[in-house]
Amino acid sequence: MTPPYTLRLTVVQDAPRPRDLDHNLARVRDGVTTGGADVIVFPELFLSGYQTTGLGEIALPLDDPRIAELADACRSAGTALLTGYVEPASGGYFDTYLAIDRDGTVRKPIRKTHLFGSEREAFLSGDALEPVTLCDTAVGVLNCFELEFPEVARTLVLRGAVLLVAGSANMHPYERDHRIAASSRAMENRVPLAYANRVGSESGHHFCGSSRIVDRDGSVLTALDDVEIDGATADVEVGARGEDATDMLGQRRPELYES
Fold first, then answer.
1. Which of 22, 42, 49, 229 is 20 to 30 Å from 60 by CA-CA measure?
2. pTM > 0.70: yes or no
3. Which of 74, 87, 112, 148 is catalytic?
4. Catalytic (active site) residue 144
C-alpha cells in the first residue's frame, strides 16, 4: 500500500479460561470471523491464560493443527490476527505473540524480550526487535511490560514500523502506567497504537482492562473501562508523515544520546 492509508483495528478485552486452550482458541476464531477488522488483537497469553507453571501442557508449536485452523479463519475473513500464547522451544518456553496475516500466512513468532516479575523464572527472553508484516503494513508488536520501555517502541519504529500494537496482561495497581504509556509511545513516535489488555482474575492477579486505540498524536480514539468484556474498533491512518515541528524521528540527534 502507498501511505498514508487507513486500517480498521479491533482490540479485544476479555478473560480467557485458565489452561483451556480449546475454549480460548474458539473465542479467537469467533473474533476473527465476526469482527470485520483488518487487524484484530487479543491480550498477552490469551490462548493459555496467564500461567507460569506447567507450561508444557499449554504450549502450542506452530505446526499444531489448531493454529492452522486459526490461519484458515484469517484467510476466510481477510483479517490479520495477533494473540498471545506459550511457545515451546529448545530449553524452555517463550511468552510469544502469534501473528497471522489476512491471507492465512503464519508469520515468525514474536517473543517477549522484557519479562516482568516472576515471568523471568518461567520464560526465556526473546532477543529480537523487528516489525512484522500484516496487511502490507510494518507492525511493531509490544508485549505488555515492553510498552513501558520507550526504547522498544522507538527501535521498532526506527526499523520501519508505521503502526504499534501492544497486547497485555496488565494488572492492578498498574492501570495508570499503561494508560500513560500507550499515549506516550504513540505520540513520541507519531504512529497510531492499539492496546489490548485482559480483565478478570487469575494466578493471584486482578487484571485492569482499559484497552484502547490511540492516534498518532496520542489522543484516544476509543477505549474500554477496567472490567467490561468487549471489543473496541477504530479506523487509523498509517504511514502519515509528521509536520516539521512534530517530526520526532527526523529531529533526533543520536550522536548526543547514550548508547
1. 229
2. yes
3. 112
4. yes
